[in-house]
Structure formats: C-alpha cells, structure tokens
Design a protein that fits this description.
2 domains, 261 residues
Length: 261
C-alpha cells in the first residue's frame, strides 16, 4: 500500500519535530554538564592557587627564587584564565543553540535583587544554598578567608531564608574577625542578632560581638553585649566565656592609699 504525498509529508514533519526535541534536550544536558564542570574546575583551581601561594611564602628565603616562583604562579593563573574563558564560550554557545539565553537555568532559584542597582551582581557560584555553604566552610577551614567571605555573602544575598543562612552569617562574621576586620565583624554579628533572632547562633554572635567591640576599645558596648549573653543564656558555654571576658574588661581595683607618717 503506497502512502499519499500528504501522509508522507506529515510523517517527515513529525520525525523532524522529534529530532529537534531530542537535539534540544541533548543541548540542555550539555549546558548543565558544562556549568557543573566550570564550577568544579574553578573551585579546584582556586584551592590549588591558594596552596601554591602559601608554599612559596613559607619556603622562599632568596629574593630571586621568590621572584621566580611568583612568575611561575602567574603563568599558571594565566593558563587557568584561558581555560575558564574557553569553557565559558562553550557554555554560551550551548545556551544560544538551545534557545535558553536570557532564561534562568532549570532548577536555579532567581537571585535576590542587589542592594545597589547600579552594580552588576556577582555571578552565583552554585545554585544550591547548602552546597554553596559547604564550599564556603571548606574555604574558611583552609584559611582562604577572602573566598569564604564571598561565598558566605552569596548565601545571605541569594538565599536569606534558607536553613543555612544564620550559620552563614555567623561564619561570615568569624571570617572578618580572623582577618582582624573588627568593625565589619561587629556589623555582621549585629545583623545576625537582628535578622536571625530565633536561631541557635545568637549566643555566639553576641559573644563575638562583645569581643569585636572590645578590640575597637568600645568597652561599654562590649560589656553590654557580653552581659546580654550571661543574662539571656546563663547555662550556655558562651555565658562562661562572656563572664571571663567581662572580668578582663573590668578596670583594676585601686589600692587603698597608705597612711602617711
């Protein structure tokens, strides 16, 4: 039985439509895979860069050797930049081919609007708040405080209502404190107490707020924050530390004047 030209035409169109759907699905999967590789490679290379930098700072004693190692590190960074640029181009090409440019990736929640509309928002490293928090925590443990600050800040900026937001806020403050940026640390700890007042990190935030204020010689404010820990959380380990700090902040008792002969 021979098919009519009309039926043959419909069959061809149907086949072409199916092929196009398969092609678009494959491009979408390629898009996701490239995104994953870019993020994984970026994290790995940044960690390697920090380790290399730490090593040549610790081991170098000769000025010429130090200069040589700096040049080697710079050459590797240039190579990393080229590789990431190539991956970004591939990713953009896949997005354009699949018609997804201008639309958010599947499964990625929309980022919060930046506070300053005149500034470009930072590219989101990971779309999952827990994964982004874990990445930041690892960077903090490794002593990569600048990276951890960026990542914890992205958790707060993009996922302020997530389950890890209050913890991210606390460790962000700890990163600033570790860098001896005590004004910024105090600001972050105050933010935690205000925005996440029901969270379990509040006692720790009040304690470290007192420490940060003491480092800035704001003794009265520091003492007030420490007393709040003792009064509101008397059975906590933070209350014990707060009492010890309050004793250290107390001015030394004046000795009674001796009798004149």
């Amino acid at each position: 039985m021979r098919l009519s030209p009309l039926l043959l035409g419909l069959a061809c169109l149907s086949g072409a439509g199916c092929a196009q759907q398969v092609s678009l699905k494959r491009m979408h999967l390629d898009n996701q895979e490239l995104s994953r590789k870019v993020v994984a490679l970026d994290s790995l290379l940044r960690a390697r860069e920090a380790e290399d930098e730490r090593r040549w700072i610790e081991e170098s004693t000769d000025g010429d050797e130090l200069k040589k190692q700096v040049q080697q590190v710079q050459a590797r960074l240039d190579d990393v930049a080229r590789r990431l640029a190539d991956l970004a181009k591939d990713l953009e090409a896949v997005r354009l081919s699949s018609g997804s440019k201008g639309r958010p990736a599947a499964g990625r929640p929309a980022a919060a609007a930046p506070a300053d509309a005149g500034k470009d928002p930072q590219p989101l490293l990971l779309a999952d708040p827990q994964e982004l928090y874990n990445l930041a925590f690892k960077d903090m443990e490794a002593g990569n405080y600048a990276l951890a600050i960026t990542e914890f800040s992205q958790v707060l900026d993009n996922f302020p209502q997530s389950e890890v937001a209050d913890n991210a806020c606390y460790w962000l403050g700890e990163c600033y404190y570790a860098q001896k940026d005590f004004p910024k640390a105090a600001e972050v700890f105050q933010r935690l107490v205000k925005d996440y007042s029901k969270g379990d990190k509040v006692p720790g935030a009040l304690l470290k707020l007192g420490y940060a204020l003491a480092e800035q010689k704001e003794q009265a404010k520091a003492a007030a924050s420490l007393r709040e820990v003792v009064e509101k959380y008397p059975d906590s380990s933070e209350a014990k530390l707060a009492k010890e700090k309050l004793k250290a902040l107390a001015p030394p008792a004046k000795k009674p004047a001796g009798k004149r002969r």
